[in-house]
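Researcher: Next entry in the queue.
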Amino acid sequence: MNQANFESDWDSTPPSLCLRNGTMCGQGNTPLFAVLAESAGDIQAGVKFARANNLRLAVKASGHDFLGRSTAKDSLLISTHKLKNITFTDSFYVGSNHKGSVITVGSGVTLSEIYTASGAIGKIVVGGTASTVVAAGGYVQGAGHSATSPLLGLAADNCHELQVVLANGTLVTVNEVENSDLFWAIRGGGAGSWGVIVSATFQTFPTFNAAMSLMTVSALNFDLMGRVIAAHAQHIFDWDSFHAGQYFYLTAETKISINGTSTLGPKLELTTFFPNISAESAIAALQPFINQAQLLGASVTNTVITDNINDVLTSSDDDAGSDFVMGSRLVDAAVYRSSPTLVGQTYVDLLKAGAAKWNESTPVATVRKIETTFRDEQLPILQKLAPPGAGAYSNEADGLEADFQTTFYGPNYAGLSAIKSKYDLTDLFIVKGGVGSERWDAFGLCKV
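Model: Structure for this entry, 448 residues:
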């Protein structure tokens, strides 16, 4: 689990928390039994057993889930991490539609394994940067963003077919010809709601070299960082013509260096991938933003390397095992174009609001208050940029979204709900914030 808080049972009396008192470890919100599947048949047997015995079912590919959807209290777990098959096909058809070169991967194959295999034969697949995320799992079910998305699209755009075990235990092919309604739903309609993915087939592309910039911008205070963020909002469109993909992270109080002096302050870290250009061209593209940040008084470091995209795309892995709340909103690019100062001030306000974190020694009542930090404190700030009704990226979001139907799925929810009823009439696959979960309690054990 990315976040330990979803493995902790805060609701029992006393709470069931691993090592809370330093000597004992309770079961928490984790499954009681597990099927470590090595084949589609194993998955079918697990699904049929859960259905026949009215069991709470959880499904885990890699466990990279910020909403806790790959675990459940008092449940049976089906784990697919042993499904490691990788197959390349040069000429793949869906019906009579030719899709070209593809890779088919089991739902235990990690992104780093995909990049290694595809790079060895001169290909690249759209995927994320955390090395142990599984492509054929929650990643593609939540749409799947990537540093290569500005050039190649989302993972969901590049998924041509899936093998899925349904709630009735049957194994079906899902594509634009067979079970086409489920094909639409499972690519972006939320992780964990549709069945157990056995494998998925993705488009491959000829590999290419990329320049990767690792930039750090440090500021002495929040207000200065707000001006830096406003400058970033002004310059972020400089890189569109390069089809550059960028991830940036802002921390409030961390160790920074200003003019050789160590202190504490806010730090902005940016990782930018420029496909098919030299390091010199990437540096030139970033320089206007660097110059403006330095004129504002910030300290900037920038290192650029050039290598094959398969070799630079993944980091070692996500940090995991923390207790915190994540939330998100999708901000219209027009807001960045028209209101960069507002963007900067919004980030200042978020920095001042602070992060929603705790540890295992935090009193339960305090944890309960912190859990609503995004909803009660941070979201009103974000709504300056993304007004009520704006969407969120459901793989990186708050599991306590009050109106997840609108926030995660928008106008598609009614259609998704109908497809859910067609393929999973008894709601065997229920997860937090998933389609149909409004019919169940927070544990997915009792209908409400």
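Model: Residues 171 and 186 are 15 Å apart (CA to CA).
Researcher: Noted, moving on.
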